[in-house]
Structures are given as structure tokens and as C-alpha cells.
């Protein structure tokens, strides 16, 4: 349960001006009758990790590479405190290999046209979330395997 709380906590703390962040930090306006203070959700996070709040909401971790054909060409990097997105951009140009770039960013860039093709962009906000390979060869291999399996199934049902 603590692991689930922690995986939810990091991305929320990196958000700017969100209701969830305000609630977690206990900055909700209003009052309460005098009695024993209630245990807040954030208190259980602090207790479970025994660390300062700044350390909990520390930087995002992403993969970084430029115009790579394979995910193995990318490196793990710790993003700056200002970055809240892991970005994956795929450059698709007809009759050329699919090239993938990955990096940390403060905002999510838009997809668009590039010379002779198009660029698709995926953004995410959790550690190492831009780990997908995006390899065209991998897609063709899966599609070929599925086609082969379907052919065998059809032949078997006819016989």
C-alpha cells in the first residue's frame, strides 16, 4: 500500500497549482474544532519514508537520446527540478528508419510536420515512463507473427 502511495505522490508534487497538491500539503482553507489532530495522508508518507518533503518530490527520471533507432541507445538521466515531463518524439519519414528522441521537458511539445514526414510526440509524468522502444522492426515482427498464427489457425480449421 505504501508503494502505491509513493508512486502517486511524486507526480502530484511536481504539478503546478493543483487541487490534489494543495490537499496533500494540507493547505485547504477553513477551520476545525479543537481536538486531537487527525493523521493526514502526507503524514503517513513522511513516516513511511523518514525523509524530508523536498526529497520525496525530487526530480523526475527519464530516458534521454537523440535520433536513436533502438531504446538501448538511450541513457537514464535525472531531470532538473523544473522538468515535469518525459518526452518521446518519433520522426517518421517514408523510406527511412524510424528515429526516436527522448528527453526531459518542463512542458509537453506539440507534434508536427518535419521535412518529408511527420513527428509524433508522447509525454508522460512518471519515472522512466518514456521507456517504449518505438522500433519499427519490433512492430513488423509482432505483425508478422500475428499474421502467421492467423494463417495456421485458418488452415487448421479448414482441414
Automatic annotation (TrEMBL):
It is found in: Cell membrane; Secreted. Keywords: Cell membrane, Disulfide bond, Glycoprotein, Membrane, Secreted, Signal. One of its GO terms (molecular function) is acetylcholine receptor inhibitor activity. GO terms for cellular component: extracellular region; plasma membrane. Residues 60-143 form the UPAR/Ly6 domain. Signal peptide: none annotated. Its main location: membrane. It comes from the Eukaryota. PANTHER family: LYMPHOCYTE ANTIGEN 6E (PTHR16983:SF13), UPAR/LY6 DOMAIN-CONTAINING PROTEIN (PTHR16983). This is Prostate stem cell antigen-like isoform X1. It comes from Eublepharis macularius. The lineage of its organism: Eukaryota, Metazoa, Chordata, Craniata, Vertebrata. The gene is LOC129334104.
Amino acid at each position: 500500500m505504501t508503494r502505491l502511495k509513493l508512486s502517486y505522490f511524486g507526480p502530484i508534487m511536481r504539478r503546478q497549482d493543483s487541487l490534489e497538491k494543495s490537499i496533500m500539503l494540507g493547505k485547504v482553507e477553513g477551520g476545525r474544532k479543537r481536538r486531537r489532530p487527525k493523521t493526514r495522508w502526507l503524514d503517513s508518507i513522511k513516516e513511511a519514508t523518514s525523509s524530508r518533503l523536498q526529497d520525496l518530490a525530487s526530480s523526475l527520471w527519464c530516458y534521454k537520446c537523440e535520433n536513436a533507432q533502438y531504446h538501448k541507445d538511450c541513457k537514464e538521466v535525472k531531470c532538473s527540478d523544473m522538468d515535469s515531463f518525459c518526452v518521446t518524439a518519433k520522426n517518421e519519414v517514408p523510406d527511412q528508419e524510424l528515429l526516436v528522441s527522448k528527453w526531459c521537458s518542463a512542458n509537453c511539445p506539440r507534434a508536427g510536420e518535419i521535412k518529408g514526414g511527420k513527428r509524433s510526440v508522447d509525454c508522460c509524468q512518471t519515472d522512466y515512463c518514456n521507456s517504449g522502444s518505438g522500433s519499427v522492426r519490433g512492430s513488423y515482427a509482432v505483425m508478422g507473427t500475428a499474421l502467421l498464427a492467423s494463417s495456421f489457425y485458418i488452415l487448421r480449421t479448414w482441414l
